[in-house]
């Protein structure tokens, strides 16, 4: 029967081009072990419903275990004539237990509920691994933050000098979105924990099979409440694609900072040799390829999500073959992050920072102007006036080609009667940073607290 799961009502086989279009073993084979696990659970449901006797059930279970062994060892693989992973494995089962017993397994199930279950099992396994790899990037960021508390750098908005900040504060700002990504994966796992097995083609199973039994056997919390939804829904796959894309975007924003920091113009950081590449023509080059690939792959991950949503839009219930198109984008997203995340962790963890350079640049662009205004507010000047005076102070300096820190007591009355000598004391980068000591602020005491909070969040998320 060439491993085909249908044929009785057809006078002939599919045309070559039809078969080539339909075939999915080249990508769905990675679900083979999940399919066999589903089959073992299904065989137990058949046994419980009296559709397999004890002897048959035992032989079936042993046969499926042997098939799993052969698949793991690469001894059994999909053949060119196999349409999909399900057909290939039924062919394999028949090879192991014979066509009579092998032909009994498919009762009461459909490839529609099978595939909907397998993709969930697969994703539940993979997102745990992705979460661990994301945690590795968080570790790298937190480790660098902990090693550099006290190091100042220019903080930017609109990429323009804004206010001085701590390097650790900035690094931790890249870690928190990744913490939320792990939370997203954990939340998604709760929704993935319902098994569609037993939904059959769409209307549910008629042979007294217990979907809850199969769900429990496969480690799901329970079976789905609606068989149509169980076979037709792919929102959870799209949600997974979204979280993968969001991780990509979060890495990409981090990557862009690293790329800027490692330019000669910034000079804030140097990449480790092991995490950069050279140029075939320019001997001096040290390129941030890891960061650039992170930025590039984010686009690809967004494309996977957009493509999947476009596939789902307008599909009538229940199963449609279009749904087969969910696999490659989600598999690609998983594969890309498996190679990307460890590389980003390595790149971040081995960056060498240049504190002198960052300290030198931190006060540039009049980044202490807010501190002038805040000082005036502390002396009870209304903020609107303080803002004006601080602006005039910047203009005064700009016209004379000096920085705010160059101001002396003689300059102050020439700028504004509101300015007292106390302002000169707040005009340091260290003072500016230390002053922002509200919760979540960049003061060293708060950043130390924040690093501990991040570590606690990591522990609390742990393995899910
Ligand atoms: N390969 C299909 C998929 O990935 C599952 C098989 C359902 N095929 C069918 N003709 N009903 O969605």
Automatic annotation (TrEMBL):
Molecular-function GO terms, alphabetical: argininosuccinate lyase activity
Compartment(s) of residence: Cytoplasm
Keyword Cytoplasm among UniProt keywords: yes
EC number of the protein: 4.3.2.1
A GO cellular component entry from the record: cytosol
Claim: Transit peptide is one of the keywords in the record: no
Coarse class of the protein's main subcellular location: cytoplasm
Gene Ontology biological process: L-arginine biosynthetic process via ornithine
Alphabetically ordered keywords of this record: Amino-acid biosynthesis, Arginine biosynthesis, Cytoplasm, Lyase
Reaction(s) catalysed by this chain's protein: 2-(N(omega)-L-arginino)succinate = fumarate + L-arginine
Pathway(s) this gene product operates in, as recorded in its UniProt entry: Amino-acid biosynthesis; L-arginine biosynthesis; L-arginine from L-ornithine and carbamoyl phosphate: step 3/3
CDD domains assigned: Argininosuccinate_lyase
Transmembrane regions: none
Homology family: Belongs to the lyase 1 family. Argininosuccinate lyase subfamily.
Protein's name according to its UniProt entry: Argininosuccinate lyase
Originating species: Tessaracoccus lapidicaptus
Gene that this sequence comes from: argH
């Amino acid at each position: 029967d060439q491993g085909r799961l249908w044929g009785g009502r057809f006078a002939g086989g599919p045309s070559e081009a039809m078969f080539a279009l339909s075939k999915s073993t080249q990508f769905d084979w990675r679900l083979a072990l999940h399919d066999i696990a589903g089959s073992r659970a299904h065989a137990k449901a058949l046994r419980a419903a009296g559709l397999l006797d004890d002897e048959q059930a035992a032989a079936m279970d042993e046969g499926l275990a042997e098939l799993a062994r052969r698949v793991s060892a690469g001894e059994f693989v999909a053949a060119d004539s196999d349409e999909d992973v399900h057909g290939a494995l039924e062919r394999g089962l028949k090879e192991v237990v014979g066509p009579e017993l092998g032909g009994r397994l498919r009762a009461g199930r459909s490839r529609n509920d099978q595939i909907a279950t397998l993709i969930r099992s697969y994703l539940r396994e993979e997102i745990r691994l992705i979460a661990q790899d994301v945690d590795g990037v968080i570790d790298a960021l937190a480790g660098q933050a902990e090693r550099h508390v006290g190091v100042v750098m220019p903080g930017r908005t609109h990429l323009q000098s804004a206010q001085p900040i701590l390097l650790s504060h900035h690094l931790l700002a890249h870690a928190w979105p990744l913490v939320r990504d792990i939370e997203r994966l954990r939340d998604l796992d709760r929704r993935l924990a319902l098994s569609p097995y037993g939904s059959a083609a769409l209307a549910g199973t008629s042979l007294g099979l217990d979907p809850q039994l199969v769900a429990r056997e496969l480690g799901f919390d329970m079976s789905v409440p609606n068989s149509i939804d169980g076979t037709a829904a792919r929102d959870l796959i799209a949600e997974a694609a979204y979280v993968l894309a969001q991780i990509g975007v979060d890495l990409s924003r981090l990557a862009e900072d690293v790329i800027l920091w490692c330019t000669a113009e910034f000079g804030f950081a140097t990449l480790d040799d092991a995490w950069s590449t050279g140029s075939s023509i320019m001997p001096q080059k040290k390129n941030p390829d890891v960061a650039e690939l992170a930025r590039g792959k984010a686009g690809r991950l967004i494309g996977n999500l957009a493509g999947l949503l476009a596939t789902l839009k307008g599909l009538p219930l229940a199963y449609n073959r279009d749904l087969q198109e969910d696999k490659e984008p989600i598999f690609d997203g998983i594969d890309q992050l498996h190679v990307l995340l460890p590389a980003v962790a390595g790149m971040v963890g081995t960056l060498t920072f240049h504190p002198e350079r960052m300290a030198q640049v931190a006060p540039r662009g009049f980044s202490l102007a807010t501190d002038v205004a805040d000082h005036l507010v502390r002396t009870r000047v209304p903020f609107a006036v303080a803002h004006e005076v601080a602006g005039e102070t910047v203009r005064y300096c700009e016209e004379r080609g000096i920085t705010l820190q160059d101001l002396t007591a003689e300059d102050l009355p020439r700028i504004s009667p509101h300015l007292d000598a106390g302002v000169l004391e707040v005009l340091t980068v260290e003072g500016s940073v230390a002053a922002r000591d509200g919760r979540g602020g960049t003061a060293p005491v708060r950043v130390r607290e924040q690093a501990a909070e991040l570590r606690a969040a990591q522990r609390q998320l742990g393995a899910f």
